[in-house]
Amino acid sequence: MKQTTNSILMIRPVGFRMNEQTAVNNYYQKVLDGLLPETVNLKAQLEFDEFVVKLRNAGINVTVVEDTKSPDTPDSIFPNNWISFHENGDVALYPMFAENRREERREDILDLLEEDGFKIENIVDYTSAEEDKIYLEGTGSLLIDRPNGKVYCALSPRADEELVIEFCEDFDYAPVIFEAFQTVNGERKLIYHTNVMMCLGETFAVICADCIDDKKERKMVLDNLKADDKEIILITEDQVNNFAGNMLEVKGKDDKRYLIMSDAAYKSLKPAQIEKLEYHCEILTSSLDTIEACGGGSARCMMAEIFLPKE
User: Fold this and answer.
1) Is pLDDT of 27 > 50?
2) Given Cys at both, which of 37, 97, 118, 173 links 113, Cβ 3.0 to 4.6 Å?
3) What pTM, to 2 d.p., does this model score?
4) What is the pairing mode between strands 257-262 and 248-251?
């Protein structure tokens, strides 16, 4: 099983803005005062387009799908939350916390991938859990260590424990489940997505261990990473607030490995952390300031990895 792929799906936004339905438990979102919604979307499109150019220049295979004006899907730029693609040809569809995010699921995207030569064998659909107000938001919630057969998941209103276990049973992974917190106005609140405070590479892991308040849980997570010979690169909660946990390792031309992150994430890192990361792969950054501020997500959230077999 491969941990990294050179193919990713990205959705180009047409109505991007701060999503009021997700802001209730995504504490990274901000209102950009004095900007019209059209201006926010235009800025997001410019950031998106520049990001795609950089990825393609590195030899990464990017499938870009334009979002549609209707239905209203302000967060469509983050497709990794509603879909994941697997080496055996399985596609998983996930139950989403925000009602307007459920509209992001589009069958025509699967048709487009098949036209591109990707083979889809089976669809594993968890979306009926929404009827019971149970959610699991894709690879935002699930950090999949494919070669080592593990899934790391920080529980939250968007990551239900029973559903995590069901996913692990369906896809044959061992669950590593914990709770991660951030300080919001002096209170410790659950972090909404695991991939904000943690990133798994082939040979390394970036993690904010300070977010895991329970010492036993923290030790269990770190022990699991160490057991799989991953170099652990610790980041601080302040760096998490700058999206330094929201990174993704992707393969480019000639299988060269890149660690993709935003400019803000990169600027928050210390030289020693950068040196450790660059030992494992080359860093590729892009400015995502508008997307991060309004969307409360960053580089990793924008990329849905495609592991599907090719015809």
Assistant:
1) no
2) 118
3) 0.94
4) antiparallel
